Amino acid sequence: MIREIALTLTPEEAASEEMITQAVASKLRLKRSDFTFNIAKRSLDARRMDVKVQLVVEVYVNQQRPPLFTPVCFPDVSHASHSAIVVGFGPAGIFASLTLLENGIKPIVIERGKDVHNRLIDTAKLCQSGTLNPESNYAFGEGGAGAFSDGKLYTRSVKRGNVKKVLALLVQHGADPSILYDAHPHIGSDKLPYIIERIRNTILEHGGEIHFSKRVDSILSDGERTSGVRCSDGEEFSGPVILATGHSAKDIYFELERKGFVLEAKSTAVGVRVEHSQFLIDRMQYHSRDGRGLYLSPAAYSLKTQVSGRGVYSFCMCPGGVIVPASSEGGSMVVNGMSPSSRRGKWANSGIVTEVRREEMDGDDPFSVLRYIEGIERSCYNPGFAAPAELLVEFINDKPRTAPASSSYPRPLVLTRLDDVLPPIVAVSLREGFKAFGRMTRSAFLSDSALLIAPETRTSSPVRILRDSSMKQGAGLYPAGEGAGYAGGIVSAAIDGTEAALRLGGDL
């Protein structure tokens, strides 16, 4: 017999399997020897002073509990009759490749950056000395931008594809099983590279190919059908193409436009990173002067408001995290946030961004929003990727500027009036949004030590590659993921890559 029950426990009780077992036995009036259980869902209710953990538990009475998931058995595709090219090995490309493999199609992956461990060396150089490798950084390389962004797996795209299967494949390759039932699952930027490496090995061991440090420069066609790609070293690969290049590979957009593909500008969001002490966020979210205590995880927040009809909201919140230079080209400044699996760092950071609408841009060409973002990134650049920074309260109140406080950012901070480097509509919207967040949090968010670091500009692609089946790119080219303008985050990109691979397989 299978029973599903809901439990409301204290954080201490929820941290103990023994206490959960006691709660199940008490609620169902069973002996502990008569049942086993799996946790189906775990969430935190921190709306009141008395923080509770909500569990949904599947109880198996007088029977063994089943495994949390069934591993996928991949076939060997070394001599498969069909192959497909996957350009880019971020979340969309990774899950497109796994889906091709599962369906007996040989994936041939072409990634402009390095493998994830050599990529770590290049990101360390960027943080330590400001030396940027334009082909291997926080945007380019195995795992894509998601490899160093905390591994946050929460998504609202549950109707677009099989979220459970995406999470199960990550667990199959080493992720903690808790991601299968946590309401806001995450892996951690310290653990995700090893999971990505295991996925790479699965693809190689079953006959797939992966080519690193190989940039695709040209899309090849045979009549009106995409027939393959040409790389910067002149090597060509033939076959249908899943294009999963991520939101920072601007050169691909220009190549597609030259070849007559249909692109359009896409609205996005830009802003800054705001950094608080994690202790302050714990106190704010858990309503306790003592912070999170022994059994609660480092607190996160999600804030949103409207300013004159324009959304202002938190994005990619990183408890216990750090802010890093995420530029992919010289002369431009971009920051992003990441945090390890423990989230035990001193600082908490989040993007606070506001909408940028394509209809507000100069020009109606596909690159109007992209040019707008490039302008922000250039205006914020300082040599060595020193980041413009300003105290939050000084940005809001236009007080005399003081030196930025200490920060997790590994490069120097440059005292900057952010109104001078951000477009007026962005600065005004952020300022009013911060004031609203202060009201929502009884002024806790407006801490005197809170720091703004600019700019956060890579929230989503500013260009969309149209992929209606009636258009040219419906034949042989399958744009997927964030770079194609159809996803935002690891799981939604993984789902989109999966769907692209299934469409390709159906067309063979």
From TrEMBL:
Gene3D superfamilies, A to Z: 3.30.70.2700, FAD/NAD(P)-binding domain
Domain of life assignment: Bacteria
Pfam family, any one: FAD-depend_C
SUPFAM superfamilies: FAD/NAD(P)-binding domain
Domain named FAD-dependent protein C-terminal: residues: 269-459
Name of the protein described by the UniProt record: FAD-binding protein
Provenance organism: Candidatus Ornithospirochaeta stercoripullorum
